[in-house]
């Protein structure tokens, strides 16, 4: 899940409207990693001077590890300083469910998408060869008529 919205991805446009959207767009811009230029979910690390960058970019720094902004020496990755205020700010940014469009936050969107009724489901007999994919509301009706699922149910007691 990454992206800052510049390419019209999951998080929407950087500035959606002059009111609320502009404020959230500016907030997202301040939370960008200076290395990859994206607003990454997950851990954010910082140097002793307070420069913040995403953990993904931090793990890719070559030895000797130095801050990408001020070049200050960084300790081992196992002792990275987390910036929890950045992490919380990123989690509070607006996001939308990629299945139903529900407006929520980046910190809550993954949990919603896992249970979203509009999330595509696969047939339980997919491993047996069924290629059906559809909504949860249609799954029971499909299973009742799916020849792969019927065979699996008949063979289960054996």
Automatic annotation (TrEMBL):
Keywords: Metal-binding, Zinc, Zinc-finger. Residues 85-130 form the TRAF-type domain. Coiled coil: none annotated. Residues 1-23 are annotated as: Disordered. Residues 33-71 form the RING-type domain. InterPro entries: E3_ubiquitin-ligase_SINA (IPR052088), Sina-like_RING (IPR049548), Znf_RING (IPR001841), Znf_RING/FYVE/PHD (IPR013083), Znf_TRAF (IPR001293). One of its GO terms (molecular function) is zinc ion binding. PROSITE patterns: ZF_RING_2, ZF_TRAF. A zinc finger (TRAF-type) spans 85-130. The keyword NADP does not apply. SUPFAM superfamilies: RING/U-box, TRAF domain-like. One of its GO terms (cellular component) is cytoplasm. PANTHER family: E3 UBIQUITIN PROTEIN LIGASE SIAH, RING-TYPE E3 UBIQUITIN TRANSFERASE. This is RING-type domain-containing protein. It comes from Emiliania huxleyi (Coccolithophore).
């Amino acid at each position: 899940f990454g992206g800052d919205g510049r390419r019209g991805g999951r998080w929407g446009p950087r500035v959606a409207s002059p009111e609320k959207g502009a404020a959230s767009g500016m907030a997202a811009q301040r939370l960008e990693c200076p290395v990859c230029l994206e607003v990454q979910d997950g851990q954010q690390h910082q140097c002793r001077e307070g420069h913040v960058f995403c953990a993904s970019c931090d793990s890719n720094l070559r030895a000797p590890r130095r801050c990408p902004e001020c070049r200050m020496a960084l300790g081992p990755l196992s002792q990275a300083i987390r910036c929890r205020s950045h992490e919380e700010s990123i989690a509070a940014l607006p996001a939308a469910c990629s299945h139903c469009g529900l407006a929520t936050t980046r910190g809550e969107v993954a949990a919603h998408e896992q249970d979203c009724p509009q999330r595509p489901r696969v047939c339980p007999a997919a491993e047996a060869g069924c290629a059906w994919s559809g909504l949860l509301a249609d799954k029971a009706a499909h299973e009742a008529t799916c020849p792969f699922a019927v065979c699996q149910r008949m063979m289960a007691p054996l």
